[in-house]
Design goal:
Blueprint (H helix, E strand, L loop, with lengths): L1 E6 L3 E6 L4 H13 L5 E6 L5 E9 L18 H6 L13 E9 L4 E5 L5 E7 L6 E3 L2 E3 L4 E3 L5 E6 L4 E3 L2 E3 L10 E9 L7 H8 L4
Antiparallel strand pairs: 1-2, 2-11, 3-4, 4-5, 4-6, 5-14, 6-12, 7-11, 7-14, 8-13, 9-10, 9-12
Length: about 210
């Protein structure tokens, strides 16, 4: 995994080569199996303009999830994250998450929005060779563009405005699952008192 940390008005990081080849071989058959099962998305903003167009599935039981939590399983999380920025100490409290699988085909996009979690992680994937242009990720509050790259993640605070550029595809490649996939993790701090011992145990690894 190739980390890059950024300190702007808030801190965020990217990781390239997030999954190994073996992990991707596990993930792709499942992603392909969802073609034809996605829900269409065409959200509107308050002014009546289209703010998102694409397809999605809410699913917290993907086989993918079995290999997705490696972000928190590094040998020394304090050295990996907190020494880069003290704000990443919040990560030790993120015991609960939900997931959203998005697929972007030709002319699909997601305009600026925020999330209701504490932190968000977006995993960007596509089949190689890439058969589209666009689909770049933006942190709009700080005017930062993160270029789309297969097997790249972006981890950022959920209050930050973010969007996805319009995907453009040749007609021969459309509607064949050859577009842009993203798997979004929404991380939360649990409020259930029964989970407090787990929270304390995890916190000890970050000292």
């Amino acid at each position: 995994m190739d980390y890059r940390f950024y300190k702007k008005q808030f801190s965020y990081f990217t990781i390239d080569n997030y999954f190994t080849k073996e992990e991707l071989d596990t993930i792709w058959p499942e992603l392909e199996s969802y073609q034809g099962k996605f829900q269409n998305e065409a959200a509107m903003n308050r002014s009546g303009s289209v703010s998102a167009k694409g397809q999605f599935i809410h699913n917290d039981h993907l086989v993918y999830n079995n290999v997705s939590n490696k972000l928190f399983k590094v040998e020394n999380p304090y050295e990996t994250y907190v020494k880069q920025d003290i704000h990443f100490k919040w990560m030790r409290n993120l015991l609960y998450s939900t997931r959203l699988l998005n697929y972007y085909d030709d002319e699909d996009f997601y305009d600026t929005h925020t999330d209701f979690s504490v932190y968000t992680m977006v995993v960007m994937l596509c089949k190689e060779p890439k058969r589209f242009v666009g689909g770049d990720f933006h942190l709009t509050d700080i005017n930062e563009k993160i270029e789309f790259k297969n097997n790249r993640i972006v981890f950022f605070p959920s209050f930050a405005g973010h969007k996805v550029d319009t995907v453009k595809m040749n007609s021969k490649d459309r509607n064949k699952g050859l577009g842009r996939y993203s798997i979004t993790h929404f991380f939360y701090i649990p409020l259930d008192e029964e989970e407090l011992p787990i929270l304390k145990q995890q916190a000890n690894r970050w000292k």
